[in-house]
Each structure stands twice: as C-alpha cells, then as structure tokens.
Amino acid sequence: MGYWGKRDDMIVHDVEPYNAEPPCAMLDGRSLTPLDTFYSRNHGPVQQIDPDEWRLDVDGLVDTPLTLSLTELRNRFASRTVVATLQCAGNRRVELAAFRPIPGQTPWGSAAISTAQWTGAALADVLAAAGLCLDAQHIAFAASDVSHVPDPPQPFGASIPVAKALADEVLLAWEMNGVPLPAVHGAPVRVVVPGYIGARSVKWVRRLTAQEHPSDNYFQAKDYLLLPADADPAAAASGQGLSLGVAALNAAILRPSDRQTLPAGPIQVSGYASAGDNRGVARLDVSVDGGQHWSQADLEPAAGPWAWRLWQVTVKLPPGPGVIVARAWDTSAVVQSESAEHLWNPLGYMNTAWARVRVTGGL
Ligand SMILES: Nc1nc2c(c(=O)[nH]1)N[C@H]1C(S)=C(S)[C@@H](COP(=O)(O)O)O[C@H]1N2
Ligand SMILES: [Mo]
Known about the structure:
This protein has 363 residues and is mostly beta strands. It has 2 domains: 3-243, Sulfite Oxidase, Chain A, domain 2 (Alpha-Beta Complex); 250-362, Sandwich (Immunoglobulin-like). The protein is 8% helix and 37% strand. The chain has a 5-stranded mixed beta sheet. Strands 5, 6, 9, 10 and 11 form a 5-stranded antiparallel beta sheet that branches. A hairpin with a 7-residue loop joins β18 and β19 (295-296). The structure holds the ligand Nc1nc2c(c(=O)[nH]1)N[C@H]1C(S)=C(S)[C@@H](COP(=O)(O)O)O[C@H]1N2 and molybdenum atom. Residues 41, 88-90, 198-199 line the site of molybdenum atom.
C-alpha cells in the first residue's frame, strides 16, 4: 500500500505535503472512486485528530455561538448523504504548463478529480441552530493544518457565500463511501461544497464564522485566483484577479491513455465530464480528426445532481500518429474551449480546454 492508505501506483507529486492522483485509467468506469484511489491535495501536514477531542466552533454573526463535539454534531442534526465530485482547480495544469511554464505549482494531470458518497450534517442546519444573522454574507471555514506556503505560515481556510452555505447539498461530512472519513481526507469532519472548486471543501474543519466579507485566509484571498495571462504572478499577493469559487465545465479522456499505441480500427474511448454549480452535462463529443467530425458519446446515468458523468463511445482510429479530442457541453449550452493555450494563466488554474490524448493507430 502507498502513503495514507492509497494504492501503490498513485502518481505522487509531493510526499510532504502529500499530493497525489491515480493513473487516469483507474478512475474509468467507476461512478464512485474507491478511497484508495481518490486524489488528495494538501497544503500542509495531514492531521491526525482524536475524534473525541475534536470540537467545532460556530461564531461570528450568529445569535448563539456554538461549540459542538462530534457526538453532538451527529446526534443533534439529521444526517444526509450526497454523491459529489471534488475537483482541484489545478486539475489538468500539466497541459497548460506545456505552453508556458508554471513554476512552483503542482503539475496535475487529469485525475485531480474524484467522486464519493459523503454523509454528514447539512451546514444549513448547523447555521440555523446557531441563529444566522441577516447581515451575514459569507461563511468562513478554518482548519487546523498549518501551511508553510504563506509567509508567515497560516492554517488552511476558505469561505463560501451564504446562499451556497444554506443549500441542502453542502455538508459537514464525517463519512466517505460509507466509512468514517480517512485522515488524509479530513477526519473527523470536513466541509463538502458540491459544485465548487475542491479548495472550498475544507478538511479538518474546526471553526465556522459567519461574516460580512469573504475569508481573508491566504488560500481564499491570495491563492486560487485566476489572473490575466500577462499578469505578474506576484499580483496575486495583492489579491488581484478572479477569486475562484464555482466549478466550471470540464472533461477528460481516461482511456486510451496518452501516447498509447492501439490497433487501428474501432476502439472504445471513455472518460468523465463534470459541470459547474447548478449545471448538468448535456452532451459529450469525441473526434479522431481534430474536430472535423464528431461522434456523440453515451453518457452514463448520474449518481446524483452533484456527480460527474462517465461516458464512452466507439470510434474508428485511423492508422498512424493522431490525437483523440473530447469536448463537453453543459445544460446552458456552454461548450469547452478548444485550446488550453488560450486559457493559460500564471497560477495554472481551470484548464477546461478540450481533452486530448496522443495515440498511434498500429496496423
Ligand atoms: N484543511 C485543508 N483543507 C483542504 C485542503 C488543505 O490543504 N487543507 N486542500 C483543499 C484542496 S485545494 C482540495 S482540491 C481538496 C482536496 O480534497 P482531498 O484531499 O480529500 O481530495 O481539499 C481542500 N481542502
Ligand atoms: Mo485544490
């Protein structure tokens, strides 16, 4: 077994803090990602928290600040289960970096995304118990892992707008795929914000604060920003750029793998597509001739409104070297952009360009 209960063949970008994604093919065909295969993204040390010692503080713009133990959280609030896909905003960064280097950022392939069934209390129920004040606009989450990315070091944190925090699907989760949350995924309790970038699903959460402004935590205010291509990455330090929140439409080809040689002729192509907040995946097209002709893939039924859609299609692979491309459409008729080159940004976020794998059709 690999680190943190993960499979041996994980692609480990960093051991400390632990950053790893599975080989793409290992995500294929499984609507829920097994725990040993689920990607993991960390900005600080994985926390080992005694569940009996853990407390959650709820404070800020609430009538009654609360401190909850795990037992109180589980007993006081109805438990809910949501199947949700988590995707890092840096998913597919390696394809951006192929156009222009992105120094200091993890070179994620297409597997910084996974799907699990999460069980926990609705964040909305906990906020209601505390008596959320009308002037609260954002709910900030603070965790216990101290990251050395910011100077001086700072615990991880994030925030989401109140309207999202009050939505049914946002959980304080203690279970993942029917078992207690593993340490690497935020035990004993993490936030799960379906439809938002992974960075807002704060692990090892210990404090919820209702406030008028977004969190000033480094990872909310200074990182996870989409900067214009010509901006100095240092511009992020002053908080310039688009603060990422809602996820965007994205897709990838999981099989065949990049640089694979296959017999020319009919082959099966498969992958995932994931839509943004409150959108669905409507269609997925695959082309073996750079987009002149497209075949529509079969979309598997969704495991729920917040889960990715797996897809597959049989196409005729021509002999010789070529590229297979795939593009998804969402329920608002938005389609992915053709080229990652035009999406390049200094911190390397949100590569939502057409998926491509280079293949050779053998004879
Ligand atoms: N406390 C804490 N929460 C965190 C992070 C972190 O470093 N610390 N990383 C975030 C990021 S950037 C992502 S993409 C997801 C990854 O969740 P996973 O490790 O369970 O896959 O967790 C988010 N929550
Ligand atoms: Mo992330």
